[in-house]
Write a structure and sequence with these properties.
7 helices, 0% strand, mainly alpha, single chain, 206 residues
Length: 206
Amino acid sequence: MENTEKFAMLNRLLSGATILSRIAIWFAGSLTLISALYITADVLFRKFSGSSLGGSDELSGYAFAISISWALSFATLQRANIRIDAVYQHLPVRLAALLDWVALVALSVFIVYLTLYATDVAGLSWANQSTANTAMGTPLWIPQFLWVGGLVWLCVVLALMLLRSSLALITGDLAGIQSLCGIRSTQEEASEEAETGKRLVQGDAQ
């Protein structure tokens, strides 16, 4: 039986996580765009009216932190995180696959600790009803819990990836490990760029 059939349920969960993470990255991008538009409006308002809309620095900071945390899951699934591959690309396939798994474990441990710390920070803000030391006086738990939500979702995604890659490692599915958590090859990146260029050309032709 093929590995894809053995782990069909887990593969479906990963596919669902990819879809939800794609939605999350659209949310993150929209939040960043709205933040940029608000800053632009604030600058223009200052120039022509001499006063400010207020809160652009504070709100953009919240937006940046929230959008980053919600974008991390999709970046991880797409293997967009940076890894040094000067030596990696010359290693035997089995050793490279093992290092891919170790790298995913290390990333997961770091993110879990980060999420626990972020949860403590948000929980403390909730318990103390802390507010920002600004004119807006924003309750800090609101942006902090939105920020933590992205990190929690990343932990869920990493758990699925780690479980699937561990099963692939046990069963000797080296290609599966590479496709899930390996460093993207130059050919893969070139193919993606070519596909993007093709869509752009087709869009212009319509």
